[in-house]
Structure formats: structure tokens, C-alpha cells
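Researcher: Re-running this chain for the archive, since the previous output was lost when a drive failed. Same request as before.
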Amino acid sequence: MSRNHWRAHVLLLGCVVVMIYPLVWLVGASFKPENQIFSTLNPFPWGFTVDNYVGGWTATGTSFTVYLANSATIAVCVVVGNVVSCSLAAYAFARLDFTLRRVWFGLMLGTLMLPFQATMIPQYTIFYKLNWVNTFLPLVVPQLLAFDSFFIFLLVQFIRGIPRQLDEAAAIDGAGHARVFRSVILPLLRPALLTTAVLTFIWTFNDFLRQLVYLSDKTRYTVPLGLNSFIDRASGSSYGGMLAMSVVTLVPTVLVFLVCQKRLVEGVANTGIKG
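Model: Regenerated C-alpha cells:
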């Protein structure tokens, strides 16, 4: 039994090394001189330097601060929009009785099967006619309208786990649906709302395709588009700056995950598939 125990640990340790090696190599390579980046598989720098960070910050012709600010602005707005609109939509599906509720819920779930590529052209046409292309509006406004079905479904499942007796007790005291949602459901919904906020921030901050479609002005570029600019300008000696800025890009999402990790796991664990 003990031998099997150690074998399992050795196997898991090997898997961990394989999985984190690319990340360790990325961080180490960002501190290497340009001529040492691809010269060895050793992830640790022998000639330590921060020139890649200093030069990479403005290597694309625009300060990386602009990209970070744009990504943060979009991500925060999308987080607020998703949390508010998806929680309201989830409460309606979970607690309100209206015509064809099951049908509408099924149609909402059906949109989960549609990739962004399938709806990209009609959406672009709508936003183009509204003169919203090359602005943040196409990336933010849909999230204010309960656009993300995945989070609606997640919140619906969480609300279904909240006893209806709490709603009924509040209704006896004269509370309407707005008061029940605000005073009863919302406080108990915090773990699921935090899960929604964290996942929305990470996915939005790292989104590339949607931002590539709608943003063309470099002053409005986000972090993924800023990193893509390094590829457009790549000459065989600009990889150091690109790797350094890739490390900078990881910092916000990793910090958000580490700070909220406990609540995030709790929210996911408490959101079961309930009938």
C-alpha cells in the first residue's frame, strides 16, 4: 500500500513538472538576454537582465500601459454587466412563473452550443450599422443584456438550491419579487456571483478573437491584441520583449484567481445540477 502511495506521488509530481515547465520557461526566458532565449531548454537565466521588460513596454509603438488599461476597463464593465444582468435573468427562470418559461430556458441553453464564429457576421453587421465598430461598446453592451447563457445557467442552478420557504416567508411579510431578490436571494447568491465575476474577468481579459474583430485603432487595443502586435513586428530579435509582456499579461489574472480561489472553488462546488 505504501509503495503504491509513493508511486502515485511520483507520477503526479512528474505530471506537475510537465504542466508547469512551459510557464517556468516563459518567466525565465523573459529575463534572459536575446541570444540566450532559444539556446537551451534550461528555463533559468544565466545572464539575468530586465532589458526585455524595459524595451518591450513600448516596442509596439504604443505603451503597454494603454493595453492594460483598455483590457481592465473592458473586463470590469463586462464583469459588472454579467453579474447584474445574469443574476436578474437567473432569478426570473428559477423563481418566476411566466408563459413558456421552460421553452425560453431551453432556447437559452441552446445558445451554449453556438460558437462565436457562427454569430460573428450577423453581430458585426448590427454593430457596424450602429457605428459601434472600433469602440468598446460591442464588447460591453451585450453583457448588460444577459448575453452569457453559461452564467445564467450556473446562477439558476444555485438559486434552485435555495429553499423556497425563505421566499414565502418574505412574501408573507409583504415583500415583492424585487425585495425578495435583493434581501433574500442576493445575499445567499454571493459565492455563485463571485464565481461569475472571476471567470468573466479572466475570460474577458484573455479574449482575443472578439476584440480582434471589433478593435482596429491601436489606442484601443487590449492586451491580447498588443501581444499580437509583437508578432506583426517580429524581426528575429524581438522575442524577448514579447515574452516579457506575456509575463506581465499573466499577472492580473493570476492575482485575481489567487485572491478569490477559495470562494471560487466554494461557488463551483455549491452549484450542483439540481432539478
